[in-house]
Amino acid sequence: MKTEADNKTCPSSTCKEGALLLGVVQGDNTVALLTGTPLTVDKAFAEKAHEDGDPERRFRFANKCVQTGCKQWTGHSCGVITRLHEMNERIEADAQLKPCAIRNTCRWYAQEGDSACTICTYVVTNNLEEV
Ligand code: SF4
């Protein structure tokens, strides 16, 4: 039986048709989350974005958390945000969270709460292999 925990959104997914455009990587490697209703990536956007190099270096995408279908899944949670949280354990969550279109279902927020959102600003998906 599906539970609420099974219906989460991955905030660091890949650029493919059906994904949501979540944010844009800035010149200082931080991510500016887009506000409002996120744009759904269509075929044309995905193709164009790949023509210009790895889109995940320039944008952040959200999509359904596939749990066991992802190598980052530990069996019960997302290993990415757990590791990032451990590496930044002294980080203080922003007093005022920035708006985020997927917070209601975000896997990272569900696991780590407000501090996930502070860490999230510094996550460029294509660099996560090094984490
Ligand atoms: S961690 Fe926070 S800011 Fe990042 S996508 Fe999830 S809810 Fe949004």
Structure annotation, total helices = 4
Gyration radius over CA: 14 Å
Largest sheet: 4 strands, antiparallel
The separation of the N and C termini measures 33 Å
Structural class: alpha+beta
Q: Which short descriptors sum up this protein?
A:
alpha+beta, 131 residues
What features would you describe in this structure?
The chain has about 130 residues and is of the alpha+beta class. It is built from 4 helices and 4 strands; from the N terminus they run βββαβααα. A 4-stranded antiparallel beta sheet has the order 1-4-2-3, with no helix packed on it. The chain has one domain. It starts with 8 loop residues before the first strand and ends in an 11-residue tail after the last helix. A hairpin with a 5-residue loop joins strand 2 and strand 3 (about 30-35). Iron/sulfur cluster (SF4) binds near residues 33, 106 and 109.
List the topology elements:
Blueprint: E1 9-13, E2 20-25, E3 31-33, H1 43-51, E4 59-64, H2 79-87, H3 107-112, H4 114-120
Antiparallel strand pairs: 1-4, 2-3, 2-4
The structure holds iron/sulfur cluster.
Iron/sulfur cluster is lined by residues 11, 33, 100, 102-103, 106, 108-109, 116-117, 120.
Q: How would you summarize this macromolecular structure in one to three sentences?
A:
By secondary structure, the protein is of the alpha+beta class.
